[in-house]
Amino acid sequence: MPAPTQDEPLPPWRPLLRGALERQGRSPQARWLQLASLAADGTPRVRTLVFRCWAGGAALDLLTDRRSAKSGELKGLAPLELCWVLPKARCQFRLRGHRLPLGGEEERQALDRHWQALTPRGRALWGWPTPGDPLQAEAPFPRELQDGAPRPEHFELLRVQLQRVELLELLGHPHRRRCWRAANGWQEERLNP
């Protein structure tokens, strides 16, 4: 995935997030983020997704199933927020932004890279029936999709462009809370916890 360019320096919160992730160790839960969004009827939705990689200094990649409700809820530039809880580091990052629309060759290449990077067990989720549909006893739920399995059309990349990042550190008294905004050049602001 692309690294930050000379025009896009690494935001100051990224090393803090990297350090918190390192304190989590090899725990798979360290890659889990909660996604908050609004449904078409205006009601809130929260889901857990897996962090895949950074796509520049302040954009990250997540994967989803195009057949799921969240795919439709996140069309265009719909606002969203991610919460990344890192218990061993005793902190949480709140990442606010919007979906970054991709298309054409850039999107195809990114999808292919992500599909090939998945393990056979990870790919299997996209071989399951449509998320949220009624369960049918005879429906196939494969455990693995081997290397070389074609990438399904419903395999979708959710690239999030971040506009605001908050860090709540739950160490010490009082707790510490900081905020960075893209609109002000990622300058740190200290907030009441």
Helix content: 10-25%
> What is the CATH superfamily classification?
Electron Transport, Fmn-binding Protein, Chain A
Unreliable segments of 5+ consecutive residues:
1-6
Strand line-up of the largest beta sheet: 1-2-3-6-5-4
As a percent range, the share of strand residues is 25-35%
Overall shape: globular
Mean pLDDT: 92
How is this structure best described in words?
It comes from Cyanobium gracile UHCC 0281. Residues 11-98 form the Pyridoxamine 5'-phosphate oxidase Alr4036 family FMN-binding domain. The protein has 193 residues and is an alpha+beta fold. It has one domain (13-128, 140-191): Electron Transport, Fmn-binding Protein, Chain A (Pnp Oxidase, Chain A, Roll), CATH 2.30.110. 19% of the residues lie in helices and 35% in strands. It has helices spanning 13-24, 69-73, 104-117, 120-124; strands at residues 32-38, 44-54, 59-65, 79-86, 91-99, 155-169, 176-181, 188-191. Residues 1-6 have low confidence and may be disordered.
